[in-house]
Write a structure and sequence with these properties.
The complex is a heterotrimer. Chain A is 40% helix and 18% strand. Chain A has 13 helices and 16 strands. In chain A, the strands form three sheets. Chain A has a seven-stranded mixed sheet, sandwiched between helices. A six-stranded mixed sheet of chain A has the order 10-12-11-14-15-16, with helices on both faces. In chain A, helix 1 packs across helix 2 (40-51) and helix 3 (65-77) crosses helix 4. The N and C termini of chain A lie far apart (51 Å). Chain B has helices spanning 13-25, 47-52, 65-70, 131-141, 154-165, 186-198, 294-308, 380-388, 397-402, 404-416, and strands at residues 2-9, 31-34, 73-76, 81-85, 90-93, 98-106, 110-112, 146-150, 169-174, 202-205, 209-215, 218-223, 228-231, 233-236, 240-242, 258-259, 271-273, 278-281, 288-289, 323-328, 331-337, 346-351, 358-364, 367-374. In chain B, strands 1, 2, 3, 4, 5, 6 and 17 form a seven-stranded mixed sheet that branches. In chain B, strands 20-21-24-23-22 form a five-stranded antiparallel sheet, sandwiched between helices. Chain B is globular. The model of chain B has no long low-confidence stretch (mean pLDDT 94). Chain C has two domains: 7-140, Alpha-Beta Plaits (2-Layer Sandwich); 149-445, Thiamin diphosphate (ThDP)-binding fold, Pyr/PP domains (Rossmann fold, 3-Layer(aba) Sandwich), CATH 3.40.50. Helices cover 34% and strands 17% of the residues of chain C. Chain C is built from 16 helices and 16 strands. Chain C is an alpha/beta fold. Classes of the chains: A alpha/beta, B alpha/beta, C alpha/beta. Chains in contact: A-C, B-C. Chains A and C meet through strand 3, helix 3 and strand 9 of A and strand 10, helix 8 and helix 10 of C. Strand 9 (215-216) of chain A pairs parallel with strand 10 (206-207) of chain C, so a sheet runs across the interface.
C-alpha cells in the first residue's frame, strides 16, 4: 500500500543539520537568522546552504531575534514562506513580535532548539523556553529523534499553511540532545517533498500588497460599538484554527507516512500500553531512554507503558484522555517547571485531560533534564518504581526532582 | 415644478459672484441661474461702450457656456420672474414655469426709472439698461441730428459724449444743479460740465422737464422756463429703480429696494438679495441704501453666495461706500466715499495748474472719509480700503494730503505684508 | 486642490530703494527711463524702509470681477491676469477692485497697465542687486503635488494645527500607490491612517508595526517583493519614539544592512499621542508629563538624541532633515529620498512641532516650524554618500534662541541658566555640523 520512496538518501547528521536539511526541502523564500546557543549551528547550516546555492532563499542577517521575527512577518505579509530558529533568551527577546504572529494568522515555521531559561545563567538544554510561550498561540510540536526533526520541519509548513489552520508552528527539538546528537537520517527526495507540500499559499487572507490594498491590523475594540465583538471574532477564529490543527496535524502525519514510509505519531504516541497498569508520560528526546526503561521493566514483569506527547499546542485532550483511560496511574516527566503549580507543565495540563476521562487516578509530577542534565535509563527505572507504587495509592507529596541528587 | 437647491435670478455681477462663491463651498448642490435676458451674461456697465461702438456686443460677455457646464450650473435664459412665494419656497416665472428652491438669490438688478412727465408716454424715447436698448440707441445715434438727454448721471453723460462725437447737437437736462450729483462737489462737476460745453453740448442744469410733445418723427421737451427743445433722439436716463415687482404679493420686506442685512439676507427665510436690487447698510451712517454700483454688486453677490452655501469664511458686508470712476473726453474722474464737507470734517481741495486737475480729500480726525479727483490719478481700490478699514493716518497725515497716491500705496503695502 | 502659479516675491528687508527694478520695467515695457511707466513701484516708507506696489496676480482677482468688458482674465495656464486692450473701455473699475495698486491708470499711455511678469521672465527680478525681488517658481511643484491623488482617506482626526497630517498626505502623494506604508503606534495611526475596527484610513496597504520593529518588518516585506521581482516602495511614517527610542535597534540594523526603504521620522519630541511623555528626542528643558516642572525638577534635564546625525553615521543611501515650513526644501529631499530608497535606506527626519503637546496656539505651527530653522534650533541639511553633508538652508544670522523658546509653552518655566544651556548646545550642534560640511566641501574641492 505505502508508496515508500526509493529515492531517499541516507546520511548521518545531528539534529540541527537535520532541521536545516528539512528547511532546505521546504524551500522557504526568506530566512532571517541570529545565532544563539544551542541553535547556532542550525542557522549556520542554513546560511551555508544559501551561500552554496543549494537553497535559493533571501538570507537576512539581522541584529537580533526581535528583528528576525519582525522581518519574517513582513516577508509573510508579502506572501513569502519563512523560516528561522531560536533558543531561550533569543525567544524571550523575540517575544513581542512572536506573540503577534498567531493573531495575524501568519503560517510561519520556526524551530525552537529548546534551552533552559535564565536565571541561573545556563546555556544547556531544557524546555523552559518553549513551555513559557505555550499561551502565545503558536502550534508547538516536540520531536523525539533527529529523523523526526527533519520530517516534522517539512510537515510543519503543510500544517501551518492549511486554510483551516493558518497559524505559526514551532518545531521544538531539545537543545544538546537533539541539536548535537548525531544519527542516521533518511533524506527525502526534493521532488517528492515538493509534491507533498504543493503550491505555497501564504497570504491569501491577509496581505500588504498594492494590488489588493488593505489595512493590516487597525486598532480594534474599545467600549461602545462593535469593536469588542470584532475582537472576539478574531480571537475565536484563532482558537478555532488551533482546534482544527488537531485534525490537520493528524492528516498531514498520515500523508507523510504514506508518501515516505515513516509514520510518526502526530499528537500522542501510545507505547507498550496494552495490558499496562500504569504509564509514564514523556515529551521530546527523553522518550528514547524512557522507552528503553519501559522495555526493561516489562521484561522484568512490570505492567508499565508509555505515553509520549508530540503535539503540546493545541493540547491533544482527546488523544491523551483516551490513553489515560487505559491505565490506573501515571508518572508525568517534564523538562520544565510550572512555577505556580509546583509541578511540570505537562503534568499540570495532563490533569485537565484526566478530568475528561471521568476517572480520578494517581498522577505524579517528575521534573528532570534541567540545564542539560541527563535523564538516564536508571533515572527512568526509579521513575517507574515510584509510579508503580502510585497504583496502590502511594503518591509523593509534591514533584519528584529527578536530578536533584546527581553527582 | 423644477427643483434646485440654489436658485439665482439674474445673471450679472452679483449673480455670477454668488454662483462662484457657492461652488467654492458646495461643488455638488443643484444650482440654477435664471435670467430675463436672452444673452449670455454681460454687465449693464458696458452698455454705454456698446452705444459708442467701442465694444461689440458679442465680445463683452462675462461668461461662456463652458463656464456654466464646468461649474454644473443650469443656465436658463429668457425667463422673467413674476412672483415669489416665500412661505412655499417657490418662484413663478412669466412663462408659467415654476421652481422650488431651498435658497433663492434675487439679483434682478434695476430698471430705468421713467419720470412722470406729461406726454412722455406719447413720444418715442430711448432708455439704456439692456443690450437691446444699447444696440437700438447705437443705431439711432448714427442718424441723430438733435438729441436731448434727460438726466446727467453716468448713463446720460456717456450718451451725451457719444452723441456729441457723432456730430449731433446735444442738450443735457438735469434737475439738480450739477452733473453726477452725490459723487462730485460742485467745483469738480463744473470742470466736467465745462469739458462738455467745450465740445458743444448744451448743459441745462437745475432744470426740469414739464412736458413732452410729438414733433414729426421726433419730439420736443418743454423745460420749466417754458423753452421747447426739439429732438429727433430723446434719451431718458433719470436713474434706475430696483426690479422687484415680483414681490408685490408680499412676504419679503422692501423699501426702495429689497431690504437685506449684512449677509444679504432678506426678511424672508431662504431669500437673499444682492446688487442693484438690494438695499443694504450704508457705510457711514448705517441707513440702508440702494447703491447701484458694480463693485458693490460684486461684494454683495459674493457675501450672499458664501452665506447661502454656509461658508464659514463669510464676512459681513462692510457697508456701501459711494464709488465712481468716470472717463469723459479722455479725462478721468474718480470718487471714493464722501465728497461733502461738514461738521467735524477736514477738507483739502487742490486745483492743478490751469484748472486742468482737481483733488479733494475729506478727513474726519485721523481717518479718511473720501477722495475725489479729476485728472489726478489715485488708486481707488486703496482709498476704498483706507476708508473701510478706518486706517489711522495720524503718523502720515501731512504726507497723505500732499501725496495721497504714494502714501496710500505705502500704507497698503505695509498692511498687506 | 487649486492651481498654484509662479510669482514675484518681495523681501522688504533686503530692499534699499535703488529703483533699478523700476528702470528695468519701464525699459522692458515702454522703452523709456521714465519711472512713471514702470509697472512695479517701490514706495519709500521713511527710515530707509521701502514698500512695494505691484500686481499680485491674485487667485481671486477683484479687478477681473469688477471688469464689465471682459478685458481682464485670469490666465489658467500662467496665473497671470491678462489685460486685453481690444476689450478695455477705460472705465477704471478694475482700479477700484485692487487694493495693491497693481493695476493703475497711466496718463502717458492713456489706459491702465499692470505687470504681466514678462511672460515668466521678469526684468525687474533680474536686475535687483540685493535679492529683494525673487521669482518663485515652485508653483510647478505645488501643482504636481496637487494633481496627484491624496492616498489617505479624508477626515483624519489629527489635532487642530498638526503639521504631521499635512506632511504625510504630501509625502504619500509623491511616493504614490505602489507602496506599503508602516505606521507604528503614535499620532499617525492615532489620527486614523490605519483605521479602526476593520476600516482603513488609507488607499494603499498600510499596517501597524509594533513600536519597536517598523524598519525590520519593512525590510522583510521588501526582500519578498524583490524576490517576486516587483517594485514596491516601503514607506515608514514613524514618530520619534518609534524611531529614536524603542524603534532604534531595528532601524539601526536596517540602516546597517542598507535595506531598501524610505523611513520618515516625524519628530514631535515625545510621545504626544499618549499624553506628552518625554522621549529620547525631547529637547533639553522641555516640560513633558514625565519631565514635569516642580520645585525639584525643571523639565527635561538631558539633551535630545541627535538622531539624523546618528543615522548619517550608518550606511544609509540618503539622510536629510526637513521642516514643513520649508516645503520646497522637503519636496527636493523627498524626491532624492524616493530615488535612494530604490537602492538602500533613505532616512528623512522631519521636525514636527506639536501645538497640543508643546503648548502653543494651533494657528502658530508653521511659524514655530519656521522659527526652529531661523534660530538654528534645528538645521536643514542632507547627507549623500560620496557627497557628504550639505546645508540646504543655511542660517548665517540666526534669530535669538529666546525668540524661538518664547513661542512655546513647554519652555515657559525656563530659567536663565537653562536658556543659556540651550543657546550653547544649539551653537555647539551647528558648529559640529559645520565642521562636517566644511570637511566634505574641502574633500570635494580637493
Amino acid at each position: 500500500m505505502s508508496k515508500i520512496s526509493n529515492s531517499s538518501r541516507v546520511i548521518v547528521c545531528d539534529g540541527n543539520e537535520a532541521a536545516a536539511l528539512g528547511v532546505g526541502l521546504a524551500r522557504p523564500d526568506v530566512v532571517a537568522v541570529y545565532p544563539i546557543t544551542p541553535q547556532s549551528s542550525l542557522v549556520e547550516y542554513v546560511s551555508q546552504m544559501i551561500a552554496d546555492g543549494r537553497l535559493q532563499a533571501e538570507l537576512m542577517n539581522v541584529e537580533g531575534e526581535h528583528s528576525v521575527m519582525s522581518a519574517l512577518q513582513g516577508a509573510a505579509l508579502a506572501g513569502g514562506r519563512t523560516y528561522t530558529a531560536t533558543s531561550g533568551p533569543g525567544l524571550a527577546f523575540m517575544f513581542e513580535p512572536y506573540i503577534r504572529a498567531p493573531g495575524l494568522r501568519l503560517p510561519m515555521v520556526a524551530s525552537l532548539v529548546t534551552r533552559d531559561l535564565l536565571t541561573p545563567q545556563c546555556v544547556w538544554g531544557g524546555q523552559q523556553d518553549a513551555m513559557s510561550v505555550r499561551e502565545a498561540g503558536w502550534i508547538q510540536i516536540y520531536c523525539e529523534t533527529v529523523q523526526e526533526v527533519l520530517d516534522t520541519i517539512v510537515m510543519a509548513y503543510k500544517i501551518a499553511e492549511h486554510h483551516d489552520v493558518m497559524l505559526p508552528v514551532n518545531v521544538c527539538h531539545d537543545g544538546n540532545y537533539l541539536s548535537y546528537g548525531v544519527s542516521r537520517v533518511e533524506l527525502p527526495d526534493q521532488a517528492e517533498v515538493d509534491a507533498f507540500l504543493g503550491p505555497r499559499d501564504v497570504n491569501w487572507h491577509v496581505a500588504l500588497d498594492p494590488a489588493r490594498p488593505m489595512a493590516v491590523d487597525p486598532l480594534t475594540g474599545g467600549a461602545g460599538g462593535g469593536g469588542p465583538a470584532m475582537f472576539v471574532k478574531y480571537r475565536k477564529g484563532l482558537c478555532n484554527g488551533m482546534q482544527n490543527a488537531l485534525r490537520v496535524i493528524s492528516e498531514v502525519h498520515a500523508e507523510w507516512g504514506e508518501r515516505f514510509g515513516r509514520f510518526h505519531a502526530p499528537l500522542v504516541e501510545e507505547y507498550s500500553l496494552d495490558g499496562a497498569d500504569y504509564a509514564l508520560v514523556t515529551i521530546g528526546s527523553m522518550t528514547g531512554a524512557a522507552k528503553d526503561a519501559v522495555d526493561a521493566a516489562r521484561e522484568a514483569g512490570e505492567k508499565v507503558g508509555l505515553i509520549k506527547v508530540k503535539t503540546f499546542r493545541p493540547f491533544p485532550v482527546e488523544a491523551l484522555s483516551a490513553a489515560f483511560a487505559k491505565v490506573k496511574a501515571v508518572g508525568i516527566v517534564d523538562r520544565a517547571v510550572s512555577f505556580g503549580w509546583n509541578s511540570g507543565p505537562v503534568y499540570q495540563e495532563s490533569l485537565g485531560a484526566l478530568y475528561r476521562t471521568g476517572r480520578h487516578i494517581p498522577a505524579i509530577s517528575f521534573i528532570g533534564g534541567l540545564a542539560g542534565a541527563d535523564i538516564t535509563a536508571e533515572h527512568f527505572a526509579r521513575i517507574i518504581e515510584t509510579t508503580a507504587k502510585a497504583v496502590t495509592g502511594a503518591v509523593p507529596d509534591g514533584p519528584v526532582w529527578v536530578n536533584e541528587n546527581d553527582q | 415644478m423644477r427643483n434646485s437647491k440654489y436658485l439665482i435670478v439674474g445673471s450679472s455681477h452679483a449673480a455670477l459672484e454668488a454662483a462662484a462663491a457657492i461652488r467654492m463651498q458646495d461643488p455638488d448642490g443643484a444650482l440654477a441661474m435664471v435670467t430675463r435676458d436672452t444673452r449670455l451674461p454681460y454687465s449693464p456697465t458696458i452698455l454705454p461702450y456698446v452705444v459708442s461702438g467701442r465694444s461689440e456686443p458679442e465680445r463683452i460677455l462675462l461668461r461662456d457656456e463652458a463656464w456654466f457646464a464646468d461649474n454644473a450650473i443650469g443656465f436658463v435664459r429668457g425667463e422673467t420672474l413674476a412672483a415669489v412665494d416665500a412661505a412655499a419656497r417657490t418662484a413663478r416665472f412669466a412663462s408659467g414655469a415654476e421652481w422650488r428652491y431651498e435658497k433663492l438669490l434675487l439679483a434682478t438688478g434695476a430698471a430705468p426709472a421713467i419720470p412722470p412727465v406729461k406726454g412722455l408716454a406719447e413720444v418715442p424715447f430711448h432708455v439704456l439698461r439692456s443690450m437691446d436698448d444699447a444696440v437700438r440707441l447705437r443705431d439711432a445715434i448714427a442718424t441723430a441730428r438733435r438729441a436731448v438727454v434727460l438726466g446727467a448721471g453716468l448713463i446720460g453723460m456717456h450718451a451725451a459724449e457719444n452723441l456729441a462725437k457723432a456730430g449731433a447737437a446735444v442738450t443735457v437736462v438735469e434737475m439738480q444743479a450739477q452733473v453726477l450729483p452725490g459723487y462730485f462737489e460742485p467745483d469738480a462737476a463744473r470742470m466736467i460740465e465745462r469739458a462738455f460745453a467745450a465740445k458743444g453740448v448744451t448743459m441745462e442744469m437745475g432744470r426740469t422737464v414739464t412736458a413732452a410733445e410729438p414733433r414729426g418723427q421726433g419730439c420736443a421737451v418743454i423745460l420749466d422756463d417754458g423753452r421747447a427743445i426739439e429732438a429727433d433722439l430723446l434719451l431718458v436716463s433719470t436713474g434706475v429703480k430696483p426690479e422687484m415687482a415680483y414681490l408685490a404679493g408680499g412676504g419679503v420686506d422692501t423699501d426702495r429696494g429689497i431690504l437685506v442685512d449684512d449677509r444679504m439676507r432678506s426678511s424672508a427665510p431662504g431669500i437673499w438679495a444682492a446688487g442693484d436690487v438690494a438695499q443694504a447698510r450704508g457705510f457711514y451712517d448705517g441707513a440702508k441704501v440702494v447703491a447701484g454700483i458694480l463693485p458693490n454688486a460684486v461684494e454683495q453677490g459674493r457675501i450672499a453666495g458664501m452665506d447661502m452655501a454656509e461658508d464659514e469664511g463669510v464676512k459681513s458686508f462692510p457697508g456701501s461706500v459711494p464709488l465712481n470712476t468716470y472717463t469723459f473726453f479722455g479725462q478721468q474722474a474718480i470718487s471714493v466715499g464722501l465728497s461733502a464737507g461738514g461738521e467735524g470734517r477736514e477738507v483739502h481741495e487742490t486745483v492743478g495748474e490751469g484748472g486742468k486737475s482737481y483733488r479733494r480729500i475729506v478727513l474726519e480726525g485721523d481717518r479718511l472719509r473720501g477722495v475725489s479727483a479729476i485728472n489726478d490719478f489715485v488708486d481707488a481700490g486703496i482709498m476704498w480700503q483706507l476708508v473701510l478699514r478706518q486706517v489711522d493716518l495720524s503718523a502720515v497725515k501731512a504726507d497723505f494730503v500732499a501725496r495721497p497716491l504714494e502714501t496710500g500705496r505705502m500704507l497698503m503695502s505695509r498692511i498687506w505684508r | 486642490m487649486g492651481k498654484s502659479f509662479n510669482t514675484i516675491q518681495f523681501h522688504a528687508d533686503r530692499c534699499d530703494g535703488c529703483g533699478d527694478c523700476m528702470t528695468a520695467c519701464a525699459q522692458a515695457k515702454a522703452g523709456t527711463d521714465d519711472l512713471a511707466q514702470s509697472r512695479i513701484r517701490i514706495v519709500p516708507a521713511g527710515g530707509g524702509v521701502y514698500e512695494l506696489a505691484l500686481c499680485r496676480q491674485c487667485g481671486d482677482p477683484k479687478c477681473v470681477m469688477n471688469c464689465p468688458s471682459g478685458a481682464l482674465t485670469k490666465n489658467a495656464a500662467t496665473g497671470v491676469i491678462d489685460w486685453d486692450w481690444g476689450k478695455c473701455v477705460n472705465c477704471l473699475l478694475c482700479t477700484v477692485g485692487c487694493a495693491y495698486a497693481g493695476i493703475v491708470f497711466e496718463a502717458e499711455v492713456g489706459h491702465v497697465t499692470k505687470c504681466d511678469t514678462c511672460d515668466g521672465d521678469p526684468a525687474c527680478v533680474k536686475v535687483c542687486p540685493h535679492g529683494a525681488l525673487e521669482y518663485k517658481t515652485v508653483a510647478g511643484i505645488f501643482n504636481e503635488y496637487g494633481d496627484k491623488e491624496d492616498l489617505f482617506a479624508p477626515g483624519l482626526s489629527a489635532c487642530q494645527g498638526c503639521n504631521s497630517e499635512l506632511l504625510i498626505r504630501h509625502t504619500l502623494r509623491k511616493v504614490g500607490p505602489e507602496t506599503v506604508v508602516a505606521a507604528p503606534p503614535g499620532c499617525i495611526p492615532g489620527m486614523g491612517t490605519v483605521g479602526y475596527n476593520g476600516k482603513t484610513g488609507c488607499k494603499v496597504p498600510i499596517f501597524h508595526p509594533l513600536l519597536t520593529n517598523t524598519a525590520s518588518m519593512l525590510a522583510g516585506l521588501k526582500k519578498q517583493y524583490n524576490r517576486m521581482g516587483r517594485d514596491v516602495t516601503m514607506l515608514a511614517l514613524a514618530g520619534d519614539g518609534g524611531t529614536a527610542d524603542v524603534g532604534f535597534q531595528s532601524l539601526s540594523g536596517a540602516a546597517e544592512r542598507n535595506d531598501q526603504m524610505l523611513f520618515v521620522c516625524v519628530d514631535n519630541e515625545g510621545y504626544m499621542n499618549t499624553g506628552m511623555q518625554a522621549s529620547g528626542a525631547t529637547s533639553f528643558g522641555s516640560w513633558t508629563s514625565t519631565t514635569p516642572v516642580g520645585s525639584a525638577m525643571k523639565g527635561k534635564s538631558t539633551e535630545a538624541k541627535n538622531l539624523p546625525v546618528v543615522m548619517m553615521m550608518h550606511n544609509c543611501s540618503y539622510v536629510a532633515t526637513a521642516s514643513t515650513a520649508f516645503l520646497e526644501d522637503y519636496y527636493a529631499k523627498l524626491e532624492k529620498a524616493i530615488e535612494a530608497s530604490k537602492h538602500g535606506m533613505a532616512y528623512l527626519h522631519v521636525y514636527a512641532p506639536c501645538p497640543t503637546g508643546w503648548r502653543f496656539s494651533s494657528a502658530m505651527t508653521t511659524q514655530v516650524c519656521r522659527m526652529q530653522v531661523l534660530s538654528n534650533f534645528v538645521t536643514l541639511w542632507e547627507f549623500e554618500p560620496g557627497r557628504g553633508l550639505r546645508f540646504t538652508h543655511p542660517v548665517d544670522r540666526p534669530r535669538t534662541i529666546e525668540e524661538y523658546l518664547k513661542l512655546i509653552g513647554k519652555y515657559k518655566h525656563l530659567e536663565p541658566e537653562q536658556v543659556a544651556h540651550i543657546r550653547k548646545s544649539v551653537h555647539d550642534k551647528v558648529a559640529f555640523l559645520k565642521r562636517f560640511a566644511a570637511a566634505d566641501a574641502a574633500a570635494a574641492a580637493g
